[in-house]
Amino acid sequence: MEAGASPLQVLWYDAPAANWFGALPLGNGRMGAMVHGGVPEETIDLNLDDLWSGRRPDGDRAGAYEHLAALRRAVFAEEDYLRADALAKQLQGPFNESFQPLGSLKVAVAHSGPVEGYSRELSLNEALVRVKYLSGAAEHHREAFASSAGDVLAVRFSTSSRTGLSLTAHLDCPHPAVTLVDGARLILRSRAPAHVVPHYLESSSPVVYEPGAGLVFSAVLDVCCPSGGELSSSDNALAVQHANEVVLLLAARSGFRGYAQAPEDNWERLEEECQRRLFSAKQQGYENLKAAHVREHRQLFERFVIELGGGPASCAPTDKRLVALRAGHADPSLFALYAQYGRYLLISSSRPGGQAANLQGIWNPHTRPHWSCNWTTNINVQMNYWLAEVGNLQECHQPLIELIKELSVAGRSTARAYYGCGGWVTHHNVDLWRSTWPVGEGSFPPVWANWAMGGVWLCQHLWEHYRFGRDKDFLAGSAYPVMRGAAEFVLGFLAEDPTGQLTTCPSTSPENSFLTATGEVAAVSAGATLDLWLVRDLFSHCIEAAAELGVDAELAARLAEALGRLPAIPVGADGRLLEWRHPFFEQEPGHRHLSHLWGLYPGDQVSARRTPAWEAAARRSLQRRLDHGSGSWGWSAAWAAALAARLEDGELAYGRLLQLVAKGSSPNLLNGAPHLFQIDGNLGGAAALLEMLLQSHEPGVVTLLPALPDAWQAGRVHGLRARGGLQVDIVWEAGQVKVATLRPKWPIRLVVRSPRGSLQDVIGPDGQRVPIWPEADGWALSMRLPVPYELRFGAPQEAKTNQ
Question: How many structural domains are present in the chain?
Fold first, then answer.
């Protein structure tokens, strides 16, 4: 770790990465890189966010909706759920395509002796990877970063050796490729597969290449020797001899031009784009390019600060800290690092103008990645973005918002073909080509494929973006038109059950199955609890948005009428929130999905103060799931932690986070131990941690430290965002809030709650005391100016009122 670097902002190691799960991630939102830090050869694995297999197929099967009547009859009249499962397979289209690796940059470096004093680090607040070590008497240094402004990867090698630096660089590619040498440049040309069969299907030809099919892509590597050196080329590689410093600049492009447009199919034109970026980068010079990169990155990263306490472990290498945490040694600052790492990963993989962060963000080494590295809309892509607003990275939400807008266009034909409905729909798997249909080709289990609520869930992100920022232009021009289209689909999709209520059918609870009365496993029924939460959420927000915009009074009335005809949220005889409308037995009581608890988190319909019966039922359901093994790893642990935070149970939330970080982290802190990376664990875990420190989901209420565990007795957080256009800082000691600072963007009245201290005074503009008064288990105050307001706390018995 560099001298003076904060352990809260650095991952560091005393050895090169043993494999991909030890490599360190860089990304500029479009290009991803995994830096291994190897000696004598450096390997940097490369990705582009829009490099995928295939092209857009026609996935909308005309007339598929004709099977709906028979399926609904099987559910409502016959209660023949196995027949409903079989009929659901008639409502399936082709499988989606897969995110692809670009290749690897490999650099072999000559050394004059054994390697000593090795150190490798990722500086989160600079978005820089550094490697340094001794070889013989010479120091060797490397730096690497992925510039967003310059749209290039930059890597600098330097040495103190009197004979200079000697290295050889070449580009590897997992696809059929040609490498050209052009002076000081290497040019890689390749084409992605025409089709990749998802990894979970057996196939004799899983990766298919066809002449003229699949996206073309190019990478151009420029070798610069700013302080001397001899350059030569051989065997599709570039070699440098006797240089004090070598800078490698790499730019890459795919032929993707939009899901509905014909791709660029000319390598030369892609290479012209790369050359322009490389020319601009070289004109700036390495130091200026790096300074601009760090400055731009810090504008996002340094909005937020978190400290949770420290100790001797905080200065140890990151992988050794993980080992100690697994052995039971406390390390509160590792959780602070984990939160900042989540923000770093979102910044690196999701920038305006690029694709949304997929199942692995922007980092994938496999041609057949797990679950195609797609956008899985039954939890995973949404979890990727729970962090965006509260973590003060609202710009990083934009790629998901653009994805939703495109799905709202692509999904209109799917709504007509599969359901005979207006509006738009999308199902659980989405790829670069904006596949919106249920995948499966008529053979895939509907427990995964036949879930039609993906678009409804995604619309929550549009509303949340509006709630945090209160941008009425965004609501009118972007969010509400898409939400209205999703609501129009649901209005057409809802079916009348035998009692006269409106419900969803076909309906599944994502990836979980139930047992029929005869003990057989089935998935398709009507009105799964998740569907009910989602429809209630969408309809109520559409009604609110229409009122705020002064539009669509007739549609709002239809939505309100439909809301009144939805079934009640089901609670079982044992007091648990049920997953389906009937008290079915779960095939897997400890299932990883916690879908029936959506109304608690990420939804906001369950609250101990507003809906105590639902809150108690949700608490029982969560505990039963956990008792049977759910929430023990990865994104499931992250979701369980967030749910526990909403229940204001700090110890339960901390226990799930401990499972996530200690059990689920690879040496590079990516959620993937021992071999399967999914970024939603990282991003969802960071979001859950912030939910433990601040909540604002109840209208007009902000709760400070609602789920603080005993392990974090002292700390501070700066730059959290709350709904309503508010920034919040908190300082606490001995488990009690000492000071909180609220920074409103406009005049606002709100209630502040804190289970960890009582509000004594509020100091506003010019040091004046601001009136406060008790209200709703908290203190109400009005902030009339967009300036900081300091809230001072004391012990609970010291509470008083400013008049």
Answer: 3
